[in-house]
Amino acid sequence: MSQSRDLQEAQAVLQQVFGYPSFRGLQAEVVAEAVAGRDALVLMPTGAGKSLCYQVPAIVRQRQGKGVTLVVSPLIALMHDQVGALEEVGVQAAFLNSSQDFEATKRIERALLAGELTLLYAAPERVTNARFQALLDSLHERGLLSLFAIDEAHCVSQWGHDFREDYLQLNLLHERYPEVPRLALTATADSHTRADMVERLQLQDAQVFISSFDRPNIRYRVVEKKDPRAQFLRFLYDEHRGDAGIVYCGSRKKVDETAEWLEQQGIKALPYHAGLDQAKRAKHQDRFLREDGVVMVATIAFGMGIDKPDVRFVAHLDLPKNIEGYYQETGRAGRDGEPANAWMAYGLADVVQQRRMIDESPAHEDFKRIQRSKLDALLALAESTDCRRQRLLAYFDEDSQPCGNCDNCLQPPAVWDATEPARMALSCIYRFQKERNQRFGAGHLIDVLRGKETDKTRQHRHQELSTWGIGRMVTETQWRAVLRQLIALGAVEVEGEYQTLCLGEAAKPVLRGEQAVKLREGTGEGKVRASKKPG
Ligand code: ADP
Ligand code: ZN
């Protein structure tokens, strides 16, 4: 069948079955590729319409007598929703999961073998299940295995943010049924993960479709963490009274505490994390989806595959793991295209904690190194004084202009040249290291720089250091900002249990004065005046 004929059929399916007038973005091209039976790798941001990319080809190919499309997805809730939605528009779809009874499973298998189903959804762990393999074999023998759609394909990559062991087995599909075309889809697309996906899923010959990752209706904002609860409440009261939103926290405990606190403030907030029992999670998710204005306080366990169009804000009270995580999580806001906010509070303690988690994980050193560099990229985004969207898109190898819809574009931050204080901090760390063979944490370093006597400074006779008190004119808050930026730049590294500071690779250019350090102007505490340089 010719390409244009395929596309006509696909168009007809889109209109008649789904009721949409036309394909969006790259959908038409992806659909044409899949209908024609060629492999494709699809990278599209959340909300771009990845589901139709395999649903439409599934229907077209089923009508051509090619049988069923197997959709592999890690998200039970999503499968459930999609099957329901498909049935509503008259498409024969089903999902197989471990909670079904034998009768239901039998019924689905019979329908499959009779060639009656168009889409079959299954979790990745099914693929290695013997009974399921026998079923696929029978379908294959009858020529009824039409297409494999692998959703959330980034789960196959360990570099990605939600690696799933089961995904590694998906190659079985390709090995057993090499001529069945595959469509791998994801909303995660940094080049590392992409390369890994191609390799692990053996998609070297697949056509790659990448749409713009820009979500223009999302306004990005990062605030420095001072009194995060008060800051968040202000944001909520000023901009999102009665709106649905998601608040991400770094731990289960903090989720519980934050949800409880929000409740006390009269906000309809519910906790969600993997430590809650299944029934409670399901109930909270359901309320979030169905009721208006529910604020879901959650760990990253929440959100993948949640299709709620009118989430008006996503807030991060703790730092996400990396830029992909930030992008995915914030991407759950504004899927309806209406204005939405991505708000994040971030501070030095977050950075220190994340570094510690990486340091202490039992992972391989190479892996840790990548985790650290990913964290650094996120810090640089959080600390940046220019367009956040531009930085975010640049991370996904996409060029763009300043967006006019992020905090830095809307209110360009006043910056001050912190090169001089940065050099002071570095030379003080250098003195600790070289003259005393010692390392200290941020608090003590700042005491020395500011010439503040403590038991510890006396004990170590740090008053005798040439860097004692050279940074008096810089406030403690400003010092913390300087250190954060130095950490983001890689000029300072944080190590070990006590989070001591040492010089990093990038210290030299700063010390030599070749690399300027620009910081956001302080937070109402006055800035460091250039004239007040230390002697
Ligand atoms: P993704 O999986 O990429 O996050 P979905 O497949 O859930 O996105 O689609 C997001 C929303 O966009 C859905 O409500 C879907 O019905 C809608 N949509 C997708 N493609 C089109 C289209 N061509 N025309 C109109 N609406 C579309
Ligand atoms: Zn911008």
UniProtKB/TrEMBL annotation:
The keyword Isomerase applies. One of its GO terms (biological process) is DNA recombination. Its EC number is 5.6.2.4. It catalyses: Couples ATP hydrolysis with the unwinding of duplex DNA by translocating in the 3'-5' direction. It comes from the Bacteria. Coiled coil: none annotated. SUPFAM superfamilies: HRDC-like, P-loop containing nucleoside triphosphate hydrolases. GO terms for cellular component: bacterial nucleoid; cytoplasm; replisome. One of its GO terms (molecular function) is hydrolase activity. It is an enzyme of class 5 (isomerase). Pfam families: DEAD, Helicase_C, HRDC, RecQ_Zn_bind, RQC. Keywords: ATP-binding, DNA damage, DNA recombination, DNA repair, DNA-binding, Helicase, Hydrolase, Isomerase, Metal-binding, Nucleotide-binding, Zinc. Residues 228-378 form the Helicase C-terminal domain. Its cofactor is Zn(2+); Mg(2+). Residues 31-207 form the Helicase ATP-binding domain. Belongs to the helicase family. RecQ subfamily. This is DNA helicase RecQ. It comes from Inhella proteolytica. The gene is recQ.
